[in-house]
């Protein structure tokens, strides 16, 4: 292979990308070396198994991916507002909408939520870490290497260009030769290992490691939504794993599962993809519902209205999520009976979701609302998500879907649910739990600016797209007809508004790091209801000096009433903690090398990487590190300084 | 079930080696052997059942006693079976209705006829409206 085949050539934007990658990497290397931070980086972050630090790394990576996906989005919007400027050609546009979708779902939404789960869930249930800390680190590194592998595709080898759904036969070897689609397959496969492991990890953590006395129906609602999400992950992700593996066999080893020739069934890919893909939608929305519930009940200063109905609604949504996948391809022509069945199951999902909307409204009803930035994101979510949900029911009607399918109406719908649901929740959750992670709040004034820019920009961007869709504008086109121009220009203005909102948000982080008041109490918002607020800030690495006995919902509310803390000096005992380890990052680096080899079909590299991975598994099998104990004296010292005693 | 004091988990190692051996055997049967298709398919099915047995008994704690949270492994297996049923039955349901994927001439004609019937029915419905 020649070098000019290895690197993507001929595109000025991509040359700029290459230059910026080299410059940023050089700058990072220089800063780390100049300030002698390599040891610190390795000891404190790269080898950590602490769920809080892993969560923070997830969130930082997700923010970087949000920037990348957002940049893709702005490029697409620029192209559609000025279609005659030849800003992007058809091929480049195809690559960008493909990476935009994949990055946003797989490498932004999920890691952001998993990051928040990592930080918050063990604290909410009174645990000192997740059930399998080593596996947790492994999950993170598998996600990060998967994301990096996918992201380098635009400078090395060429990006995938068959849409984030990667439908065959277009995505097959015959019609998409070269490494592009392989990047999609291997990037998702590698990060999928981590997602599946996270699902198992949180399932066990929540089922087995709750504070003494805490019953299932006393768990905070975010923990509930994480548990249900974990179940969906464990059941849905194997389907994606198998589908990706089958397509890998097709593309790299000449099998015929999804090909047009050799009795392959191209539509089987769509079928398997959405069998995973629909539950995936709920993987990214259920934790969001959990976050909104926590934020709303905290700032409405009330117990969540209809807690049990909320839990059962989540469980019902999770169950139904496995029975609706065909609504993504009604137009495949599976026949009226099949479509009717899935049309009805789709509409059924609106029922438990509607129940949840009323739960939130019921919580807000007659409450004294503390209008913080986190609360504003949650309040903006409710009406915006309802618009997305109602248009979802419209799409769910199979016969009407023949009109809406693959039009901008669909694009507007899923952005309304994914942004107003998941992205608003990520912002709300990050702002809400930020003081627990970093010891200071985000500046509220700047937060409001970023909120208004983002939310108004969001509606200006996506509301017109419903009408562009009704006017017949199909998705995934790089040029448009004059009738669609006004709507598209409005939409582009809105998209840049969202970009400004995100930029202000990033500036808020820097500003708050420098100027925000440091937290002195653990209960940052004064109205904390769940156990994470019972810990001091900064949270000691062992979380709880003494784990409280829980016998009610909103455990911290009761703790405050009884005047108890998580530091009862006479009950202290040595705490057993897991040791840091460099194995997960090394292991996943080897698998990343193997995946890179498979992308370019360099078998020697793939085999070497896999063998090294197996060696790492053997090393792990004979690893008898049992962790260490934190002595009572050290706990006393840490707690006293953290609590200012 | 697992004894944490034991240095080498014999049962797991045996299970691991057996499952790899069975996989290799199935691969050989499909790619390398001269058996007839019928024998290959039934052979692979039998190997799959043995494989599932190995997984259940050697890794998945199927013989474990009930704990205070109910019989967790059995619950998980039940959910797994439901999911498998959804994947298999669901795929057959969506992928086979109104499609022909059989290149066998006779059946093709039969399916064709069925489709024609369907179309006539559809037309009837259109007239009805």
From TrEMBL, chain A:
Cofactor binding mode and count: Binds a copper B center.
Cofactor: Cu cation; ferriheme a
Gene Ontology BP terms: aerobic respiration; electron transport coupled proton transport; respiratory electron transport chain
Listed transmembrane segments: 12-35, 56-76, 96-121, 133-156, 183-209, 221-247, 281-299, 311-330, 336-361, 373-394, 414-434, 446-467, 487-510, 586-619
GO CC annotations, alphabetized: plasma membrane; respiratory chain complex
GO molecular function (one): cytochrome-c oxidase activity
Catalytic activity: 2 a quinol + O2 = 2 a quinone + 2 H2O; 4 Fe(II)-[cytochrome c] + O2 + 8 H(+)(in) = 4 Fe(III)-[cytochrome c] + 2 H2O + 4 H(+)(out)
EC number of the protein: 1.10.3.-
Membrane topology: Multi-pass membrane protein
Chain ranges of the Cytochrome oxidase subunit I profile domain: 34-551
Keywords: Cell membrane, Copper, Electron transport, Heme, Hydrogen ion transport, Ion transport, Iron, Membrane, Metal-binding, Oxidoreductase, Respiratory chain, Translocase, Transmembrane, Transmembrane helix, Transport
Pathway: Energy metabolism; oxidative phosphorylation
Major localization class: membrane
Location of this chain's protein in the cell: Cell membrane
Keyword tRNA processing: no
Family assignment from sequence similarity: Belongs to the heme-copper respiratory oxidase family.
Job of this protein: Catalyzes quinol oxidation with the concomitant reduction of oxygen to water.
Record protein name field: Quinol oxidase subunit 1
TrEMBL record, chain B:
Catalyzed reaction equations: 2 a quinol + O2 = 2 a quinone + 2 H2O
Domain of life: Bacteria
GO biological process: aerobic electron transport chain; ATP synthesis coupled electron transport; electron transport coupled proton transport
GO molecular function, one term: cytochrome bo3 ubiquinol oxidase activity
Sequence intervals crossing the membrane: 12-31, 37-59, 80-99
Spans annotated as Disordered: 104-129
Membrane topology: Multi-pass membrane protein
Cellular component terms (Gene Ontology): cytochrome o ubiquinol oxidase complex; plasma membrane
InterPro entries the UniProt entry points to: Cyt_c_oxidase_su4_prok (IPR005171), Cytochrome_c_oxidase_bac_sub4 (IPR050968), QoxD (IPR014250)
Family the entry assigns: Belongs to the cytochrome c oxidase bacterial subunit 4 family.
Record-given protein name: Quinol oxidase subunit 4
Species this chain originates from: Halobacillus andaensis
């Amino acid at each position: 292979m020649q070098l000019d085949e290895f690197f993507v050539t001929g595109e000025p934007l991509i040359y700029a990308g290459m230059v910026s990658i080299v410059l940023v990497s050089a700058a990072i290397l220089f800063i780390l070396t100049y300030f002698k931070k390599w040891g610190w980086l390795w000891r404190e972050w790269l080898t950590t198994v602490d769920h809080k630090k892993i969560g923070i790394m997830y969130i930082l990576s997700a923010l970087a991916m949000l920037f990348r996906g957002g940049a893709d989005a702005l490029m697409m919007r620029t192209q559609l507002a000025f279609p005659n400027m030849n800003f992007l050609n058809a091929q480049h546009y195809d690559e960008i909408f493909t990476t935009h979708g994949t990055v946003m779902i797989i490498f932004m939404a999920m890691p952001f939520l998993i990051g928040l789960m990592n930080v918050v869930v063990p604290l909410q249930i009174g645990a000192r870490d997740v059930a399998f800390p080593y596996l947790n680190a492994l999950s993170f590194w598998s996600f990060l290497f998967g994301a990096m592998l996918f992201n380098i595709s635009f400078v090395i080898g060429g990006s995938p260009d068959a849409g984030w759904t990667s439908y065959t036969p277009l995505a097959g070897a015959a019609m998409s030769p070269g490494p592009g689609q392989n990047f999609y397959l291997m990037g998702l496969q590698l990060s999928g290992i981590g997602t599946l492991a996270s699902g198992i990890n949180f399932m066990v953590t929540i089922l087995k490691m709750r504070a003494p006395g805490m019953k299932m129906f006393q768990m905070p609602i975010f923990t509930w939504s994480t548990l249900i999400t974990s179940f969906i992950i464990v059941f849905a992700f194997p389907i994606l794993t198998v589908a990706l593996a089958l397509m890998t066999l097709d593309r790299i080893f000449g099998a015929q599962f999804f090909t047009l020739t050799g009795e392959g069934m191209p539509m089987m890919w769509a079928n398997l993809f959405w069998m995973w893909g629909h539950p995936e939608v709920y993987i990214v929305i259920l934790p969001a519902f959990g976050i909104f519930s926590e934020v709303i009940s905290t700032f409405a200063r009330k117990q969540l209205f209809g807690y049990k109905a909320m839990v059962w609604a989540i469980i019902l949504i999770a169950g139904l999520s496995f029975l609706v996948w065909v609504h993504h391809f009604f137009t495949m022509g599976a026949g009226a009976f099949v479509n009717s069945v899935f049309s009805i199951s789709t509409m059924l999902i609106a029922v438990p979701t509607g129940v949840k909307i009323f739960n939130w409204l019921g919580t807000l009803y007659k409450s004294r609302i503390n209008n913080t930035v986190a609360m504003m994101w949650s309040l903006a979510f409710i009406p915006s998500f309802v618009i997305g949900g109602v248009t979802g029911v419209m799409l769910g009607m199979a016969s009407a879907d023949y009109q809406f399918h693959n039009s901008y109406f669909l694009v507007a719908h899923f952005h309304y649910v994914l942004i107003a649901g998941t992205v608003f929740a990520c912002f709300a959750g990050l702002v809400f739990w930020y003081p627990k992670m970093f010891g200071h709040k985000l500046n509220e004034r700047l937060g409001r600016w970023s909120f208004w820019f983002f939310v108004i920009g969001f509606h200006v961007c996506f509301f017109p797209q419903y009408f562009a869709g009704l006017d017949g504008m199909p998705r995934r086109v790089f040029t448009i007809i004059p009738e669609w121009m006004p709507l598209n220009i409005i939409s582009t203005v809105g998209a840049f508004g969202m970009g400004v909102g995100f930029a202000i948000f990033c500036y808020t982080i820097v500003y708050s790091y420098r100027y925000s008041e440091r937290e002195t109490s653990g209960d940052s918002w004064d109205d904390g209801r769940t156990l994470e607020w019972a810990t001091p800030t900064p949270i000691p690495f062992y979380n709880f000096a003494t784990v409280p006995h829980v016998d009610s919902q909103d455990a911290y509310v009761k703790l405050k009433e009884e005047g108890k803390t998580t530091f009862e000096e006479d009950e202290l005992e040595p705490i057993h903690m897991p040791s840091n380890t460099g194995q997960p990052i090394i292991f996943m680096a080897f698998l990343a090398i193997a995946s890179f080899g498979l992308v370019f079909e360099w078998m020697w590299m793939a085999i070497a990487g896999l063998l090294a991975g197996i060696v790492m598994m053997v090393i792990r099998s004979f690893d008898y590190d049992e962790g260490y104990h934190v002595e009572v004296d050290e706990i006393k010292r840490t707690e006293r300084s953290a609590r200012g005693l | 079930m697992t004894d944490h004091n034991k240095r080498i988990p014999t049962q797991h190692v045996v299970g691991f080696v057996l499952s790899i051996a069975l996989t290799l055997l199935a691969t050989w049967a499909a790619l390398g052997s001269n058996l007839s298709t019928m024998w290959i398919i039934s052979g692979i099915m039998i190997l799959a059942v043995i494989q599932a047995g190995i997984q259940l008994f050697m890794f998945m704690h199927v013989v474990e006693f009930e704990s205070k949270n109910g019989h967790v492994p059995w619950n998980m297996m039940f959910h797994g079976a439901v999911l498998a049923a959804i994947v298999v039955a669901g795929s057959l349901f969506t992928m086979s209705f109104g499609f022909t994927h059989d290149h066998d001439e006779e059946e093709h004609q039969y399916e064709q006829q069925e489709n024609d019937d369907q179309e006539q029915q559809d037309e009837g419905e259109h007239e009805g409206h």
